[in-house]
Amino acid sequence: MISCTEFIPAYSELFKFLQQKGGKPAVIAFWQYLSDSFLGNLRNLAAEKGLAGCFEYWSHTLAEEAADFRMTLDQDSFRIEMRACPSKGRLLAAGHLQPYSDYCRHCDLLYRRVLEPLGFEYELDLSQSDQAKCLLVVRDRRR
Length: 143
Hints:
The chain contains 5 helices and 4 strands. Strand 3 (120-125) and strand 4 (134-140) form a beta hairpin. The longest helix has 35 residues, at 4-38. The chain has helices at residues 4-38, 40-49, 51-65, 86-93, 105-115; strands at 68-73, 77-84, 120-125, 134-140. The radius of gyration is 15 Å and the shape is globular. Helix content is 55%, strand content 19%. By secondary structure, the chain is an alpha+beta fold. The protein has one domain (4-140): 2-Layer Sandwich (Muramoyl-pentapeptide Carboxypeptidase, domain 2), CATH 3.30.1380.
């Protein structure tokens, strides 16, 4: 089994390989496949529990990744302030490779693809992704 420290650079390199072979559409198709195939747990939690389901999902996944983050949940929104993304941080620290230029966009597509069809508004600010920081805000528009 591949370790997390090996997986993240391999993931980034795979995105670059896919783009070289099939352009950006190949990368997007791969991300869509991942979202459709492996995020059923997020889909189920969000459909059943709304924003609280989002909080539950990311509480587990971000703790596993040992991310430096702050999550907040209120009646109107769920927010993740990512202060130090371990994936992007590891890529930025690796002097021997250049991260895939749109690496952080995989999070945008994967999770947006799950949440928007359920009636959620999904906003991801990647303006500080070059520092391994981002801000996610999810709002429930089903009300």
